[in-house]
Design a protein that fits this description.
The protein is an alpha+beta fold. It folds into 2 domains: 120 residues, Immunoglobulin-like (Sandwich), CATH 2.60.40; 47 residues. The chain is built from 2 helices and 11 strands. Strand 6 and strand 7 form a beta hairpin. It comes from Rhadina sibilatrix.
Length: 192
C-alpha cells in the first residue's frame, strides 16, 4: 500500500512540474500588421519576455511566408551574434536592429518590394525557456501614391465647406444691400 501512495505522489508531482515547465515559456510580441511604401526600409519590431534571465544560448530566428503561400524562407538568425542569410531574397537586405539586454530582437528590411508582401515570423528561445509563442507580422508593401482617397475626401469636404461659406456670405451681403436700398427709398419718400 505504501508503494502506491509514493507512486501516486510522484505522478502528481510530475504533473505539477510539467505544468510549471510549460508555464515558463517565452512570450513574443510583434505588431500585427505593418504597411510600408515600396522602395523604403522598414523596421519589424519583435520583443520578448521570458521567465528566465537572458542566457548566452538565446537564439532568434526570423522567417518569411510569401502571400502566395509558397515555402518559408529564412530571413535572419541570431545566436550570440547576428547572422544574415547567405542567399535568397533577403540577402544583403536585412540588418539586426535589436538589443538583447532590452529584450528587443527587431530587424530592418531594406529596399522593400511588392514581392515582400507576406508574413514574417519571429521565434525566440531562451534556455531553459525553449517553448513559447511565435510572433507574426503581416507586411504590406504599397506603391507611393501622390493623391490618396483620404486626401481626395479631405479636399472634397474642404471645398464644399468653403463653397457653403461663400454662399452664406453672398446671401447675407445681398440681404444687407436690399435692406439699405429699401431704407434709402423710405427716407426719400418721407422727405418728399
Amino acid at each position: 500500500m505504501r508503494g502506491r501512495t509514493w507512486l501516486g505522489a510522484a505522478l502528481v508531482l510530475g504533473a505539477q512540474l510539467r505544468a510549471l515547465w510549460l508555464a515558463a515559456a517565452v512570450e513574443v510580441h510583434t505588431d500585427r500588421e505593418v504597411v510600408a511604401v515600396n522602395g523604403t526600409n522598414q523596421r519589424l519590431k519583435c520583443t520578448f519576455s521570458s521567465s528566465s534571465p537572458v542566457s548566452q544560448q538565446l537564439s532568434v530566428s526570423w522567417n518569411f511566408q510569401p502571400e502566395d503561400l509558397s515555402s518559408h524562407e529564412p530571413v535572419f538568425y541570431y545566436l550570440k551574434d547576428p547572422y544574415t542569410p547567405p542567399s535568397g531574397r533577403f540577402k544583403e537586405r536585412v540588418t539586426w536592429d535589436g538589443n538583447i539586454e532590452r529584450n528587443d530582437v527587431s530587424i530592418v528590411i531594406w529596399n522593400l518590394q511588392p514581392s515582400d508582401n507576406g508574413t514574417f515570423t519571429c521565434q525566440v528561445t531562451n534556455w531553459p525557456d525553449v517553448y513559447g509563442t511565435i510572433g507574426e507580422v503581416r507586411l504590406r508593401v504599397v506603391q507611393k501614391v501622390n493623391f490618396s482617397e483620404i486626401h481626395f475626401l479631405a479636399v472634397a469636404i474642404g471645398s464644399a465647406s468653403v463653397l457653403m461659406i461663400i454662399v452664406v456670405t453672398a446671401v447675407i451681403i445681398c440681404r444687407q444691400r436690399r435692406r439699405r436700398a429699401r431704407d434709402k427709398r423710405l427716407e426719400a419718400a418721407e422727405a418728399e
